[in-house]
Amino acid sequence: MKKELRFNSRTIHGGQQPDKAYGAVMPPIYQTSTFAQTSPGEHRGYEYSRSGNPTRHALEESLASIESGRYGLAFASGLAAMDAVMKLLSPGDEVLATNDLYGGSYRLFRKVFEPLGIRFRFMGMQDAADIGAAIGPDTRLLWVETPTNPMMNVIDIRAVAEICRSRGILLAVDNTFATPYLQRPLELGADIVMHSATKYLGGHSDVVAGGLVVSDEKLAERLYFIQNASGAVCGPMDSYLVLRGIKTLHVRMQRHCENGEAVARYLAGHPGVEKVYWPGFPTHPNHDIASEQMSGFGGMISFIPKGAQFRDAVRIVEHLKVFTLAESLGGVESLAGHPASMTHASIPREEREKSGVTDALIRLSVGIEDAADLIEDLQNALEAS
Ligand code: P1T
């Protein structure tokens, strides 16, 4: 593994070697379920594609490299990656999770794992001091999203990691919004990094995939066992697409950050906008920690139009023409969403409103188009509604 390379080179070369058969520079798509054996158990490193596939392996090495970890695992989706982490736990174990998180993550916890006996508690983790007191005798794992989806709260990974280490608890960080270009949780002391690779890593809205990266060998072995035993692996074609996306992660992220800032500043100065959630503003409550642990503020923004109710927010997103109204984020094209009725609809109203996800909230994934077109589009939509 070319660990010594800098980040912007690791996106391209990290863990990659020319293909052994013909020297192909990009890993071939090994679209095969199985591999020939010369004698039972004698093969060339791969026997069955659920257990291992060279294209997926190339992606797993790349994931490990860009997240500064030792072991990468690629899954069929971000939620499949999270599902594997939850299977490290046993009935009676408790997870403390951020109270503001992707609706599908909440649903997986509450509707799939809670009935199996794993307990979940949700809390704001912006003040790391609150966490120590919240940890109970059965707490085994902290699940942290930072920045959070969709409220853009930022959590101090280093401080939380210290608490977890001292209490013998695993810390998993969902790094989907920041990507390793902006923040590398393992370097800050986290045990597990998780990705919806569907988003910035893939980068082109053409694949659903997930990833985990860890450095501890025993943890990697347990997760690999679960990956193989449960089977929600990333297919060869999807692995290739994510790998191809990762090669331009650094250039895309640079533009996402620039455009994100331009759009956030535009919205903040618009008389029809009440509040803009973007960690780059010095007035953002977690701006200091964001500046410390992230190397930029990303392209995700949420905002509330002045005096808006459900219908007003919906009208604005309906009027957008360059932004596409769609679930998901992190692609080259700008997307807009209405969390309350889309990505976070699976969280009961009372719970989501407690963390700020009201009917008036609009979420933007700012893409890498010309920022002037994005701003004009928002201007037209805000004026038309
Ligand atoms: O969609 P999937 O690849 O399974 O990833 C789930 C997931 C996990 N974590 C975060 C922070 C996410 O944002 C997501 C997926 N989110 C969306 C589809 C969305 O529009 O927010």
Account of the 3D structure:
By secondary structure, this protein is an alpha/beta fold. The chain has two domains: 7-246, Type I PLP-dependent aspartate aminotransferase-like (Major domain) (Aspartate Aminotransferase, domain 2, 3-Layer(aba) Sandwich), CATH 3.40.640.10; 250-384, Aspartate Aminotransferase, domain 1 (Alpha-Beta Complex). The chain is built from 14 helices and twelve strands. It has helices spanning 7-13, 54-66, 78-86, 103-113, 129-134, 157-167, 179-182, 217-230, 236-246, 249-268, 287-293, 310-319, 349-354, 371-384; strands at residues 71-75, 94-98, 119-123, 139-145, 170-174, 192-196, 210-214, 273-277, 300-305, 324-325, 335-337, 362-365. The termini are far apart. The structure holds ligand P1T. The site of ligand P1T has 18 residues, from helix 3 and helix 4.
Sum this structure up briefly.
With 385 residues, this protein is α/β, with parallel strands linked by helices. It is 37% helix and 15% strand.
Derived from helix and strand composition plus strand pairing, the structural class reads alpha/beta
Number of helices: 14
Number of strands: 12
Strand content: 5-15%
Largest sheet: 7 strands, mixed
Strand order of the largest sheet: 1-7-6-5-4-2-3
Instruction: Name the average pLDDT.
Output: 97
Bound molecules: ligand P1T
Q: How would the global form be characterised?
A: globular
CATH structural architecture of the largest domain: 3-Layer(aba) Sandwich
**CA-to-CA gap between the ends?**
53 Å
- CATH fold-level name of the largest domain: Aspartate Aminotransferase, domain 2
Q: Would you state the CATH class of the largest domain?
A: Alpha Beta
